[in-house]
Amino acid sequence: MATLTLKKVKKSFGNTDVIHGVSVDVADGEFIVIVGPSGCGKSTLLRMVAGLETVTSGDILIGGRRVNDEEPMDRDIAMVFQNYALYPHMSVFDNMAYGLKIAKVPRSEIEERVAQAAKLLQLEPYLRRKPRELSGGQRQRVAMGRAIVRKPAVFLFDEPLSNLDAKLRVQMRLEIKALQRELGVTALYVTHDQVEAMTMADRMIVMNGGVADQIGAPLEVYANPATEFVAGFIGSPPTNFLVQGLIGGDGEHRIGIRPEHMRLSGAGAGKLDARAAYSEALGAETLVHVKCADGTQVTVRQDAALDIPEEGSEVGLDWDKPNEMRFDAEGKRL
Ligand code: ADP
Predict the structure, then answer these.
(1) Can you tell me the distance from the alpha carbon of 98 to that of 120, in angstroms, rounded to the nearest whole number?
(2) Are strands 16-26 and 4-13 parallel, antiparallel or unpaired?
(3) pLDDT tens digit string along 199-254?
(4) Average pLDDT over residues 154-167
(5) Which superfamily does 257-319 belong to?
(6) Residue from 16, 18, 45, 81 to probe ligand 1 pocket by mutation (most atoms less than 8 Å from CB)
């Protein structure tokens, strides 16, 4: 177990800067999720911590020790990959034991550690099987097991659930989170899925084009996004954005309002007139999509018990002032 510190970490590939200086202090035992769209630099950041990419400038510290120049195997980390990277010709036991064998851990200790991990992960019945004889979820657990037996200071996860179907993903994210809690190991977890980030993270780092736009606890980030990008990326359906001009007043800035903070009123009775486009009745709630005069699409999330406007009908849009989030022309929160 250990702290993890990034100090102004930058990465360039040739002339292209892809990480523009990320700093974060991860507490011992904390679960940090790096989240952002494809190409924002999540994997590059994780791979620098793992030692699979060099650091262009800045420092990475694990347990207070600068590791920039250390080989991956000396960093006291264990990584779980998206494709699990299991050896197909080896049994579950041998897959989990392999790293320990390479590290010349005595046989008896290997057996003990693998047995412990197998128990924790409910893999005991499968130790003699080959990876192809396992389900996706079980393979995922073997990859976890291989990381656990190393007793690392830090777990690194690179989109570990993206090969699983939706239901299994939900189950596995609970399992991984519970396991990390139980073991108390500091974790850095990369995903493009904001729901995964919201549900798993103690704190999340929201990446936007190589910049950490915001670092904070999920609900804090949701309630108080630092930038227009974060307001749009975290939360589903995304925040609605209106230009200030549309609702009167001057200024270039844009206003973000979450779908659950929008409500429909009678035509002409709201702050803004719009036309109902289409609706999605999801059971417990309904998403009503409307179009404003300037073409801006707005989503209203309303209780399923409320009336759904007819397609093409005129409606009013209303919301409470305190729920407006204002952003300047650069997308920074005002
Ligand atoms: P993410 O994991 O968020 O999808 P990556 O960290 O993989 O993003 O990539 C960030 C950016 O760096 C992308 O624009 C990608 O094209 C670029 N990149 C990644 N690896 C290399 C490389 N080896 N050489 C050049 N560019 C790279």
Answers:
(1) 18
(2) antiparallel
(3) 999 999 999 999 999 999 999 999 999 999 999 999 999 999 998 766 676 667 89
(4) 89
(5) Nucleic acid-binding proteins (2.40.50.140)
(6) 18
